[in-house]
Amino acid sequence: MDPEVHSLTGAYVCDALEPAERDAFEHHLARCATCAAEVAELRETTALLAAATAQAPPARLKTAVDARIAVTRQIPPVVAPVPARIAARPRRRWFTAAGWGLATGLAAVVAVLGVRVQDQQHQIDQSRQRDAGISTLLSAPDARTDSVAVRTGGTGMVLVSRSRDEAAITINGLSQPAPGRTYQLWMIGPSGIRSGGLLPTGTEASNSVLAHGLGDAQTIGLTVEPAGGSAQPTTTPVMLLPMPA
Amino acid sequence: MLGRTGSKAAAEESATLEAHLHRVALGDREAFDAVYEQLAGPVLGVALRVVRDPAQAEEVAQEVLVEIWRTASRFDPTRGSARAWALTMAHARAVDRVRSVDAAVRRESRAAALMAEMPFDQVAEAVEASLDRQRVRRCLEGLTELQRQSVTLAYYGGYTYSQVARLLDTPLGTVKTRLRDGLARLRDCLGVTG
Question: A163 CA to chain B: closest CA distance, Å?
Answer without folding.
Answer: 25
